[in-house]
Structure formats: structure tokens, C-alpha cells
What we know:
By secondary structure, the chain is an alpha/beta fold. It has a single domain, classed as Transcription Regulator spoIIAA, CATH 3.30.750. A 5-stranded mixed sheet has the order 1-2-3-4-5, covered by helices on one side. α1 packs parallel to α2. The model has no long low-confidence stretch (mean pLDDT 91).
Amino acid sequence: MGVRLILKEGELTAVLSGEIDHHSAREIRETIDDAASKVKPKLLTLDFSDIQFMDSSGIGLIMGRCKLMQVWGGAVRIANLPPKIEKIVSLSGINQLCTVVKGVKKDEADE
């Protein structure tokens, strides 16, 4: 599990990797929230291109970030969902709370 944060022009991108389960979700959440609370981005992109597995903890992770961004008047975008995870996200209804996009390229500039 890992998360790499990229800040560019007011947008925070969290490039996630590995698996998201109840053990890793807390660490991912804390990392994203710490950075987001400092910069208060208008857009938070969660890039799932390197995620191999996600359980319901991942849904909670996304929902919590949506609520956090609403407080700051921002939005969440979910990018590059693998097909199995895209199905979980669709069934959960999360796609009603945030934008789901494909083909967002990872930036090489780190925060």
C-alpha cells in the first residue's frame, strides 16, 4: 500500500498503489487529510491506476474525502479505476457524489 501526493495548480492528486483494506485505509486517509488540510485544494483526484484490491474500506475512504472536500467547497475526482473496482464504486453509488474519469495521467512533480 502506498500513496504519492502531487500538488499542481491548486489540485491535489493522490496516486494510490497496492491494496485498500481496513488496515491500509486509515494510513491513506491520514496522509491525504494531512496534506489537504494544509493546502485546501479545490480538486482532489484519487488515482486508482495502481490499486489491485479494494474492499468496503475503500468506499469509506472515498466518501470521507468527499465530505471533507465539501466543507472546503471543493470536489473529488476518481481516476483510472480498474474494472473490478469500477464495478464496486458504481454499485456503491459513490459515482453520484464525485466525478469518475478515465485516462488521467500521473504527473511526475511531487509535492
